[in-house]
Design brief:
This protein has 450 residues and is mostly helical. It has helices spanning 11-42, 45-81, 85-111, 114-120, 126-138, 142-157, 161-185, 189-213, 229-238, 240-263, 266-302, 306-333, 335-343, 347-361, 364-379, 383-409, 411-440. Helix 2 runs parallel beside helix 5, helix 2 (45-81) packs parallel to helix 6 and helix 13 (335-343) crosses helix 14. The longest helix is centred in the N-terminal third of the chain and has 37 residues, at 45-81.
Length: 450
């Protein structure tokens, strides 16, 4: 069954079209998760806590790649929908070149600031050295990590979601195999985990460049970059919400770690590390869906196909609702076996982690709608609304709840803060969805057969 951006999407077609992006994002999330499993089980709790303390800083740089990828995909898909394939290729080539330049600069800044950052984040004693040793190996590969994040979205705009999926899967497999060798066989501990991740990121960033430089049958091809700063600004504006989301997630994770070090100590940071890993995977499914469906939304908006835009919007809400329910039940019911993947050898830490997982699982009931809500406006090239939603959801509401709730609820206030902040964000998204329908007409009464 041939599926393209211009297809009419039934549930089956929509599912088949977005699955590669979902798998792609899940495998991307595996990078840090696999590192965490090996470090927590084979190295030690302090190193595990150090890994979780410094990784959010690395993700701040990766957020730029996601911003360019999602923002560029929205603009490129809209341009293709308008029938201007040459301009779409020019924008694509410019964005890849831009990423290479910015990535190298970010890698240098990150490399020389690590020790100060580790101390600022609350690391003390040996934990500072563990943070620095791990991240210094990752920083030279940051440019490829950023490129990989951008290509995950751009591959879908090129009508090659399955190719992007396989590149990401192979990259994840490389990471897993190297973790087993470098940590399990050669006992290189944190440095081995960092090297495994860095090598896999280099693979994930370089292979798409090689593919698009060669003659291919996709909608896009790399050529000589034509600098169009208006399109670059539009790309960054469109993707601002994803940038805000990823940076905010990193900032909030740092704040969680700070609060937990203050309230509980090392065990709190380790428990939150487990929650973060599982949330990476669960949220990756929603992020993958939005990456997969965004070009469809952008294409139909650019082509002024309102009926199909309404169709995709309606079906997306149903798919996300069912997935949210399944994820909540999984996180709540299977909290113990999920925790035991990381912390089964420490009874006190295991009990703390299980309790935390069950509190945090409440957020899964609605988090998918919130992720889709922000990404939907990005796909419509409305970066302002999308960025506002992301800023409130991932930074303002979470910072407020993580600072206030522990005053009244202690440690439980930390664990339940995400759910409360997601409820607040859902109210904002419902407001914008109703208000902006007058402009985009994605909720018309005109029905499309399911």
């Amino acid at each position: 069954m041939d599926i393209s951006l211009s297809s009419h999407f039934t549930y089956k077609k929509l599912f088949r079209f977005v699955v590669p992006s979902v798998i792609m994002m899940i495998f991307t999330s595996i990078y840090n998760v696999v590192d965490g499993i090996y470090i927590s089980n084979l190295v030690g709790k302090t190193q595990f806590a150090a890994l979780n303390m410094i990784y959010p800083y690395v993700m701040v740089y990766a957020a730029i790649g996601f911003m360019v990828g999602t923002g560029g995909t929205a603009l490129i898909s809209k341009t293709i929908g308008e029938g201007d394939h040459k301009k779409a290729n020019d924008i694509f080539s410019m964005l890849v070149c831009f990423m290479l330049i910015i990535g190298i600069i970010c890698g240098l800044i990150g490399y020389f600031s690590l020790r100060k950052v580790a101390v600022f984040l609350g690391a003390t004693g040996d934990m500072v050295d563990y943070c620095v040793n791990y991240a210094r190996i990752l920083m030279p590969a940051v440019v490829f990590f950023m490129l990989q994040g951008a290509f995950q979205a751009l591959m879908v705009a090129a009508d090659k979601p399955r190719l992007g999926m396989w590149i990401t899967i192979l990259s994840g497999i490389i990471n897993i195999v190297l973790d087993a060798l470098l940590i399990g066989v050669f006992h290189l501990e944190l440095e081995g985990a960092a090297a495994a991740t860095a090598i896999s990121q280099v693979f994930g960033g370089i292979v798409p460049i090689i593919y698009f430089l060669r003659k291919n049958d996709s909608l896009l091809r790399l050529g000589k970059p034509v600098w169009d700063f208006k399109s670059l600004v539009r790309t960054c504006t469109n993707g601002a919400s994803e940038f805000v989301t990823n940076v905010s997630v990193s900032v909030v994770e740092m704040l969680y770690n700070y609060q937990l070090m203050r309230l509980i100590g090392e065990n709190g940071v380790a428990a939150y590390g487990v929650i973060s890993y599982l949330m990476f995977i669960f949220i990756a499914a929603f992020l993958g869906y939005t990456v997969g469906v965004a070009p469809v939304i952008g294409f139909n908006y650019g082509a002024q196909r309102e009926d199909e835009l309404q169709n995709v919007f309606r079906k997306s809400l149903v798919i996300i609702g069912v997935t949210c329910l399944l994820m909540f039940l999984t996180g709540f019911i299977f909290a113990k076996p999920l925790a035991d993947i990381f912390v089964s050898s420490d009874i006190e830490l295991e009990a703390l982690t299980i309790r935390a997982l069950r509190f945090c699982s409440l957020a899964y009931i609605i988090i998918g709608f919130n992720i889709f809500g922000s990404a939907f406006f990005t796909a419509l090239n409305n970066g302002g609304v999308s960025a506002t939603i992301s800023f409130l959801r991932t930074l303002v509401f979470q910072v407020v709840t993580i600072l206030i709730l522990p005053i009244f609820m202690g440690t439980d206030g930390v664990w339940i803060s995400q759910f409360i902040s997601e409820v607040m964000a859902l109210c904002v998204i419902v407001f914008f969805t109703v208000k902006m329908n007058k402009r985009y007409h994605y909720m018309s009464e005109k029905a499309i057969s399911v």
